[in-house]
Amino acid sequence: MKSYSVYILKCSDGSYYTGITNDIDRRLYEHQNGENITCYTYKRRPLSLVFFENFPDVNQAIEFEKQVKGWTRIKKEAIINDNWNKLKELSICKNNTSHTNYIKP
Questions:
Q1: Which of 4, 27, 44, 82 has the fewest Cβ atoms within 10 angstroms?
Q2: 44, 15 in Cβ contact below 8 A?
Q3: 67 closest CA partner among 84, 50, 81
Q4: The whole model's pTM is what?
C-alpha cells in the first residue's frame, strides 16, 4: 500500500522547509544533492530531516502539508519536538486588538 509523507527539513540557515512525497528517501536525496536549482533548499544545504508523518491517503497528506506550511516557526518546532498538545495554546491570538483581549475604554 502506498503511503505519503509530510516532512520538515531544517536548512543550514536555520529556516524550515515543509514538503510532501511518496518516497521519503528519494526526496531527501534530491534535496541534499541539489537536484532542482530552483528549489528553496538548493542554496540552504546541508539539510537535516527533523520531522515526518506518514499518511495512507494523498489528500490527507496534502491537507496536512498546507496546514503546516501556514504555521509559525514555533508551531512547527512544537511538532518537531513531539509537543502536539502545545498546538492549541500556540493557536490562541494574544494581540491586544483580538476580540478576546479587547478592553473597552
A1: 82
A2: yes
A3: 84
A4: 0.85
Q: In the chain, count of helices (H) and strands (E)?
A: 4, 3
Q: Which fold has domain 4-70?
A: GIY-YIG endonuclease (3.40.1440)
Query: What is the rounded distance in angstroms from the CA atom of residue 78 to the CA atom of residue 86?
Result: 7
Query: Per residue in 58-103, pLDDT tens?
Result: 999 999 999 999 999 999 999 999 998 888 888 777 666 655 555 6
Q: Please provide the distance, in angstroms rounded to a whole number, between the alpha carbons at the two ends of the chain.
A: 60
| Distance separating alpha carbons of residues 45 and 75, to the nearest angstrom | 23
Whether the CB-CB separation of 3 and 20 falls below 8 Å is answered with no
The C-alpha atoms of residue 102 and residue 57 are separated, in whole angstroms, by 42
Residue 61 contacts residue 4 (beta carbons within 8 Å): yes
Q: Spell out the SS3 assignment of 12-31.
A: CCCCEEEEEECCHHHHHHHH
DSSP 51: E
